[in-house]
Amino acid sequence: MAVYALTGFSLVSLLSFGYLSWDWMKPSLVADVATDPMEKSLPPTFARPPHIIFILTDDQGYHDVGYHGSDIQTPTLDRLAAEGVKLENYYIQPICTPSRSQLITGRYQIHTGLQHSIIRPRQPNCLPLDQVTLPQKLQEAGYSTHMVGKWHLGFYKKECLPTRRGFDTFLGSLTGNVDYYTYDNCDGPGVCGYDLHEGEDVAWDQSGKYSTLLYAQRVNKILASHSPKKPIFIYVAFQAVHTPLQSPKEYIYRYRSMGNVARRKYAAMVTCMDEAVKNITWALKKYGYYDNSVIVFSTDNGGQTFSGGSNWPLRGRKGTYWEGGVRGIGFVHSPLIKRKRRTSWALVHITDWYPTLVSLARGNLSNVPGLDGYNVWPAISEGKESPRTEILHNIDPLYNHAKYGSLEDGFGIWNTAVQASIRVGEWKLLTGDPGYSDWIPPQTLTNFPGSWWNLERLTDGLRKSVWLFNITADPYERYDLSDQRPDVVRTLLMRLVHYNRTAIPVRYPAENPRAHPDFNGGAWGPWASEDDAEEWEGTGEPLKSRNKKKKCKICKLRSFFRKLNTRLMSNRI
Q1: pTM above the 0.70 mark?
Q2: Is 152 annotated in the active site?
Q3: Which of 51, 68, 152, 333 does the annotation list as catalytic?
Q4: pLDDT per residue as tens digits for the range 427-483
Q5: Which Gene Ontology molecular-function terms are recorded (predicted)?
Q6: What is the spatial distance between Cα 77 and Cα 274, in angstroms, rounded to a whole number?
Q7: What is the CATH code for 2-39+391-502?
Q8: For 57-388, which CATH superfamily applies?
């Protein structure tokens, strides 16, 4: 049992030097200690189940918060984080749908079939219906559950909607990218529709209201009409600060001295979101929730450097498996925390919120075996060691075209052309094509992209398909150790092999013309009936419609947009 007391850092170090032996094909480094989610950490004891407010922002970069040295004003986030616990070893996913699915299910995306890209508006796809969601578990524990904001977990049939997945109420968008005022979303030229929904109905009457402010107002209304005597869970998934870059003028004026227009608008959106969080916190206090509440703040992925975001000094951006894509802003603020006002370096992943919050709610996890998340509340509240020692960032079998990857480069056990990444203790391994690998300073210069874009670019190693970093010693991923430590590379490749054996087929069906908003009164919404379920669902192979019509304009445009996918993806996900 002495082995289990070692930290992730020392354990992997000793393994690498050969002082310890381990079966790397076991489920996880702590599997022998506790296999049941409820046993991973003892549940807390509160007088009453706490109110839980989970705030998720969209595309907010690691550098884009005041307490990380940003030039953007975030006084509310700075204060809440300073009075709570800052999570400085906190990881998310590099794009939208995967992060949201892992939050809602507590499972890696290889275990839900969502390991490739995102769920697109015209795809017959959604979060698998056999998954028991976080709000469903909280409902079982007696909670009132509400969602405000961006869903992006599929909507092709009504069973996929938030109100069918555990939320009592819902106000927000179903797709991933809408106008902040008009709530229009275009999935290609001529494929546009309205996307703001109240429950399962289209909320036409809310058009014209800036989404960040609208969502904060809705949270205030929920708190005002609910009794603090009954526990409540509110999932606030702000659209901010995803593109399009739109903000009320009064916020843009504050940053008028910023030379870069994209950065100026982006900064305004962040500050507006910060004030929305201030209003939510104020409402918690006004209506009597605050003293028994837990506020969790998280980003969904790294910042989009094409659109004003910054992950400096981390490497990479949104959509990549470099630290800039997967290391997030995170903190917990609560009067119930035992050791407040500190920074935690405990390893935490977005899947951990599922068992952590259900345990806080005194819920039952016995009927959801095989979770990939851990209860990290003792690590957050009391400063104890995190039960997590490794993170599977992802394995994407459909993204397997790295030019220089091969099975030979993977010691005959792993094809390094496959995009994958894993963190074990201090070590991080990447294979395939991890994405844009630049270090990009904040975009404060006037010309875009121009002079700032190439300030920190690595030009060597372009013929590689394997990278290894000691993230503890080198958090900015500047020193690739794959050639010096082939023993560690092989060990981590074996972990990828293990996880890959547990993966389910990819759910990434072809887009279907039936989803066009013109067939739904001009709004995005469910289009498939229960009888169509088998036709619309897929596991990686393109689906064929039974309607043998001639190719429509939408279909003809598909190949064109796929050719532009590398560039367009930055603003569509």
Answers
A1: yes
A2: yes
A3: 152
A4: 999 999 999 888 988 865 445 554 444 455 555 556 899 999 999 999 999 999 999
A5: metal ion binding; sulfuric ester hydrolase activity
A6: 6
A7: 3.30.1120.10
A8: Alkaline Phosphatase, subunit A (3.40.720.10)
